[in-house]
Amino acid sequence: MELIEAIMSRTSAARLREPGPSAAHLEVMLAAADRAPDHGRLKPWRVQVLDQAARNRLGEAALAARRRRDPQAPEDALRMEREKYLRSPCLVVVGCVIRRDQPKVPEVEQLLAAGAAVQNLCLAAHALGYGAMWKTGPAAYEPEVKQAVGLAPQDHLVAILHLGTRDH
């Protein structure tokens, strides 16, 4: 798929199913993310492919955060909060670790670089025939959710990226 065709035809998937990306395809997607534009060459993004145990930890942390934010949440909503990280064949999280020792590269530029890494990953997924859904939601801003994916409270959880085959 040519670059302009990939950009012009890429859309967020509504639903995903198996199969997810192969290991070789994931490697290409991660390499594409690593080529994002990056003022200062800081590479502030942190990309992780979550295995089942990590997805469960993320779901439990999001559930705990939801219970704190909304103590009256119905059980169905709580169950969905925990399980939404298990729905897609592959889950990738992208964080941004701000380099505060680099005053020439403001925080916003570092965040934009991390966003560009996510976009590159999404375009590579599309070019390889996969669908992607870029999600965050309130949980992405909670310290324990960030910690569940290896980020510090002051870091940013930029994307919770679901990957798989489009379910039309």
What this model shows, in words?
The structure is a single chain. With 168 residues, the protein is α+β, with helices and mostly antiparallel strands. It has a single domain (16-166), classed as 3-Layer(aba) Sandwich (NADH Oxidase), CATH 3.40.109. The chain has six helices and five strands. It has helices spanning 3-9, 23-33, 52-69, 75-83, 107-127, 143-148; strands spanning 16-17, 45-50, 90-96, 131-135, 156-166. Strands 1, 2, 3, 4 and 5 form a five-stranded antiparallel beta sheet that branches. Helix 2 (23-33) packs antiparallel against helix 5 (107-127). The chain is globular and about 50 Å long. The chain starts with a helix and ends with a strand. The model has no long low-confidence stretch (mean pLDDT 96).
